[in-house]
Each structure stands twice: as structure tokens, then as C-alpha cells.
């Protein structure tokens, strides 16, 4: 069986291969962003699986953390504000078959008998505010047919309506040090922070309707963040807060090992 030192050399060699692939992609532009990331993930995954020993892959933890940072650099380079997702052209809108997910024991539902729902928008902004649903719906809205990408590998198409994050940012005016945005929910405090570039992508929105009907509790009512530029677990549902920040603060899944950037 290979020693941990030899296994680590294998992983480092794989890192070199990925770096060369990035350079070739930069030069040729022949691969789509998602295809490249899937290819790189599969290659590194195969190496790590082959490297596992009886003690498991703990020996590679430090390298994996470094690899994630390098992967984030690649994803940020591949990110484009001009790329618009229109939903897989040959796919049907998932409708009621769109998967539902939450971390609470039961479907989270806002208790309107105790208090009205509001969305707090604050942190590193000049004009912090709190919006009720009527006020949120009065913000210039957008309706879009988009893909929803799950980290498990499946994709579903949905039609969502909501307020673009870029419009919300225009209203609250983030300060110059705002580099990240945290989306916080009432689903057991679930949250995920984003880089501000992804948060302000033209297709990132605070959605309150799906297929022209207000969101149901199963899909994140009263409001959720959604964007095709992020994997599903980054798209926080059951929103209560949007906080602009100078530093990232992790997230529910990214704190336990999932990739923080979570780009598609």
C-alpha cells in the first residue's frame, strides 16, 4: 500500500495537471465553465479515492484546504457577469416536482400570529432597512426561467420572480469595504455567505414567487435568495436577513466541509 507521502505526491501532481488545464482553457476557451469544473472535480476525486488508506483521507486535510482555495481562484476567474442562464432548453419546468429541502424537523413556516415577516438588510451599507413583503414586492422585479444546480448532480428548471440583488444593493448602497453578503434564514439559523460579485450577478434575486405563484413553505416562503451561478445549498431559503460584510463568515454547509464558494 502506498505511503501517505507518496499519496500526497500523487495529489500534488493532480494539482499541477489541473493548473495546466486552466492555462489551456484560458488560451482556447473551448470548455464551458461547468464542464471544466466537473472535469477537475472528477479528476481530483479519483486521485483522493485512490489515495485513501485504512486511516481515511485525514492525511490530506491540509492539502484539501489549499486545493479549495486554489479552486476558488479558478471559479472566480471563470465567473462572468455577462453570462445569462436561460434554463436547459430541452427541459420541462419542474413545477411541483422541484425538490424541497430544509434542515428543521418539519417544514419551516413563519408564525404570522406572533409577528409580521420582515427582511432586514444591513451590515456594511449606508441605508440599512427592513422590508415587509409589500415593500419587497414594490422593488423593481424580474421574472426568469433558470436552472437550479444541486451539489448532488441533478439540475431542475424553475421560473422565479423577485427583486434583483443588484437593485436591492442600489437602494441600500453598500460601503466600499463590503466584499461579502450573508443570507440568513429562520430555518434553524441556516445561512450561507457569498462573494459580492456573485451576489450582484444580474440573475441573483430575492425570489418570492415560483411559476407565478407566491412561494409555498416547501420552497422557502416568504422569500429566498436564488441564482443559477451558485449551487443549491448556497441559495438560502426562509430569508430573514441580508448582511453585507467586509469579511466572509462561512455557512451552514461550508462550515462542515462543503466548498464555500459553491459556484456552478
Task: Describe the structure in your own words.
- By secondary structure, the chain is α+β, with helices and mostly antiparallel strands.
- It has 2 domains: 4-78; 95-256, Sulfite Oxidase, Chain A, domain 2, CATH 3.90.420.10.
- The protein is built from 6 helices and 10 strands; from the N terminus they run H-H-H-E-E-H-E-E-H-E-E-H-E-E-E-E.
- The protein has helices spanning 4-28, 33-51, 61-78, 133-138, 165-172, 196-199; strands at residues 119-123, 129-131, 142-149, 155-164, 180-185, 191-195, 205-210, 213-214, 224-226, 239-245.
- The strands form 2 sheets. The chain has a 5-stranded mixed β-sheet with strand order 2-1-10-5-6. Strands 3, 4, 7, 8 and 9 form a 5-stranded antiparallel β-sheet that branches.
- It is globular, with a radius of gyration of 20 Å.
- Residues 38-56 have low confidence and may be disordered.
What keyword list fits this structure?
single chain, 264 residues, alpha+beta, Sulfite Oxidase, Chain A, domain 2, five-stranded mixed beta sheet, five-stranded antiparallel beta sheet, 6 helices, 10 strands, 30% helix, globular
Low-confidence stretches: 38-56
Class of the largest domain, according to the CATH hierarchy? Alpha Beta
Supply the CATH superfamily name of the largest domain. Answer: Oxidoreductase, molybdopterin-binding domain
Radius of gyration over C-alpha positions, nearest whole angstrom: 20 Å
Order of helices and strands: HHHEEHEEHEEHEEEE
Through-space gap between termini: 36 Å
CATH topology (level 3) name of the largest domain? Sulfite Oxidase, Chain A, domain 2
Query: In the CATH classification, which architecture of the largest domain applies?
Result: Alpha-Beta Complex
| Biggest sheet descriptor | 5 strands, mixed
Number of E-state strands: 10
Global mean pLDDT: 83
> How much helicity do the residues have?
25-40%
The amount of beta strand, in percent, is 15-25%
Helical/strand content category: alpha+beta
- Provide the spatial order of strands within the biggest beta sheet: 2-1-10-5-6
Amino acid at each position: 500500500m502506498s505511503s501517505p507521502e507518496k499519496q500526497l505526491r500523487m495529489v500534488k501532481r493532480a494539482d499541477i495537471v489541473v493548473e495546466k488545464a486552466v492555462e489551456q482553457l484560458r488560451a482556447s476557451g473551448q470548455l464551458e465553465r461547468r464542464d471544466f469544473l466537473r472535469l477537475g472535480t472528477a479528476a481530483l476525486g479519483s486521485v483522493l479515492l485512490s489515495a485513501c488508506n485504512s486511516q481515511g483521507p485525514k492525511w490530506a486535510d491540509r492539502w484539501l484546504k489549499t486545493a479549495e482555495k486554489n479552486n476558488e481562484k479558478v471559479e472566480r476567474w471563470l465567473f462572468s457577469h455577462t453570462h445569462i442562464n436561460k434554463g436547459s432548453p430541452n427541459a420541462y419546468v419542474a413545477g411541483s416536482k422541484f425538490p424541497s429541502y430544509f434542515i428543521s424537523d418539519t417544514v419551516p413556516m413563519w408564525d404570522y400570529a406572533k409577528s409580521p415577516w420582515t427582511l432586514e438588510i444591513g451590515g456594511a451599507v449606508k441605508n440599512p432597512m427592513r422590508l415587509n413583503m409589500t415593500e419587497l414586492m414594490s422593488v423593481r422585479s424580474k421574472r426568469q426561467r433558470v436552472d437550479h444546480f444541486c451539489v448532488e448532480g441533478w439540475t431542475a428548471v424553475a421560473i422565479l420572480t423577485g427583486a434583483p440583488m443588484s437593485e436591492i444593493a442600489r437602494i441600500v448602497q453598500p460601503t466600499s469595504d463590503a466584499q461579502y453578503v450573508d443570507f440568513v434564514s429562520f430555518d434553524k439559523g441556516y445561512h450561507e455567505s457569498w462573494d459580492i460579485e456573485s451576489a450582484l450577478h444580474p440573475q441573483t434575486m430575492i425570489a418570492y414567487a415560483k411559476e407565478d405563484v407566491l412561494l409555498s413553505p416547501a420552497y422557502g416562503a416568504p422569500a429566498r435568495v436564488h441564482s443559477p451561478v451558485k449551487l443549491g445549498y448556497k441559495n438560502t431559503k426562509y430569508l430573514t436577513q441580508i448582511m453585507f460584510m467586509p469579511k466572509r463568515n462561512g455557512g451552514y454547509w461550508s462550515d462542515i466541509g462543503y466548498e464555500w464558494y459553491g459556484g456552478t
